[in-house]
């Protein structure tokens, strides 16, 4: 009889309970085009988007995470991509200032949510800043994207407001217009990314900081495999990103495929629909 007590390979990955903010895609559709994935002429199925989103929401809860909700507003079809609403570090909130007028009203909506929860520092970015779409907290540092959406000047502002060093990275491929479409944080010191989405200088920076990173192929990046959320052990990502799932499993992570095909039509997947709150919500559920 094979022993049942064999140690698991690389059991070092431990999930940490997380706190997320999500927005139901009640008003989701693609009615304008601000990234190459959005094709307004292509029909969207809002009911299916809601069903797929609810699966993600339930999955987080089954994994032991806390999920807060913000009320979706009519006329803001992209509000489902809550990652863009802000960047939260400790109890400090840096609220997004969107590049495109179509999304501008989302900033105040997210701001109100945080103010009502009693966060002590709620600062609206004075430079174009698309929240966790372009700012990814990785341990003690923040990786920040620029090139398509977030302004370079927003990086210094984030460093000041959030109190963590920011490493700036330049995106060069319009398919990967937000940092979170080209790079995902797996653990405090582990990431996965698609090198060709970055400028040569940024590629060098990433190689130096993360010599052991998981490297994505174009095929896995193209299906939004990098738009993933990790709790330190479980990595939720597009089920089409098979190559990434294999690499993650090989390292001892647990990849979990989540089909968000409708939300892909707006140019987003798992991470875009998930804003991480790194501080128990003041007066909240924890
Ligand atoms: N349609 C949205 C936009 O182009 C998608 C945002 C995706 N969000 C993200 N965190 N990458 O702004």
- Major sheet strand order: 2-1-15
Task: Give a short account of the largest sheet.
Answer: 3 strands, mixed
Number of beta strands: 15
What is CATH's topology name? L-arginine/glycine Amidinotransferase, Chain A
Bound molecules: arginine
Determine the strand fraction and express it as a percent band. 15-25%
Indicate the percent of residues in helices.
10-25%
Unreliable sequence segments: 1-8
CATH superfamily: L-arginine/glycine Amidinotransferase, Chain A
Helix and strand content put the structural class at alpha/beta
Number of helices: 7
Mean pLDDT level: 94
Oligomerization status of the protein chains: single chain
Distance between the termini: 45 Å
Helix/strand order, N-terminal first = EHEEEHEEEHEEEHEHEEHEHE
Global outline? globular
Plain-language structure description:
By secondary structure, the chain is of the alpha/beta class. Helices cover 23% and strands 20% of the residues. It has helices spanning 46-62, 106-116, 153-162, 200-209, 218-222, 242-251, 261-264; strands at 19-22, 66-69, 86-89, 92-95, 121-124, 135-138, 141-146, 166-170, 183-187, 190-193, 214-215, 229-230, 234-237, 254-257, 275-276. A hairpin with a 2-residue loop joins strand 9 and strand 10. The radius of gyration is 18 Å and the shape is globular. The N and C termini lie far apart (45 Å). The model is unreliable at 1-8 (pLDDT under 50). Arginine (ARG) binds next to loops. The site of arginine has 16 residues, from loops.
């Amino acid at each position: 009889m094979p022993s049942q007590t064999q140690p698991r390979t690389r059991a070092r990955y431990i999930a940490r309970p997380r706190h997320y903010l999500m927005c139901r895609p009640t008003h989701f559709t693609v009615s304008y085009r601000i990234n190459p994935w959005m094709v307004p002429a292509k029909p969207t199925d809002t009911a299916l988007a809601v069903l797929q989103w609810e699966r993600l929401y339930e999955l987080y809860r089954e994994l032991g995470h806390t999920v807060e909700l913000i009320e979706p507003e009519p006329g803001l079809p992209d509000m489902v991509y809550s990652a863009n609403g802000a960047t939260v570090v400790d109890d400090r909130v840096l609220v997004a200032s969107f590049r495109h007028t179509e999304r501008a009203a989302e900033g105040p909506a997210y701001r109100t949510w945080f103010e009502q929860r009693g966060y002590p520092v709620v600062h609206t970015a004075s430079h174009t800043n698309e929240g966790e779409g372009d700012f990814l907290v990785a341990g003690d540092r923040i990786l920040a994207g620029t090139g398509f959406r977030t302004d370079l000047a927003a990086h210094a502002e984030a460093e000041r407001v959030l109190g963590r060093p920011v490493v700036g990275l330049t995106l060069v491929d319009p398919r990967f217009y937000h940092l979170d479409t080209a790079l995902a944080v797996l653990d405090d010191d582990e990431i996965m990314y698609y090198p060709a989405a970055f400028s040569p200088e940024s590629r060098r920076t990433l190689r130096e900081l993360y010599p052991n990173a998981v490297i994505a192929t174009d095929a896995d990046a193209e299906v939004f495999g990098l738009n993933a959320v990790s709790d330190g052990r479980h990595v939720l990502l597009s089920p089409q990103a098979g190559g990434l799932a294999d690499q993650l499993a090989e390292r001892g992570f647990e990849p979990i495929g989540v089909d968000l095909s409708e939300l892909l039509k707006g140019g987003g997947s798992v991470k875009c629909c998930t804003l991480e709150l790194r501080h128990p919500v003041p007066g909240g559920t924890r």
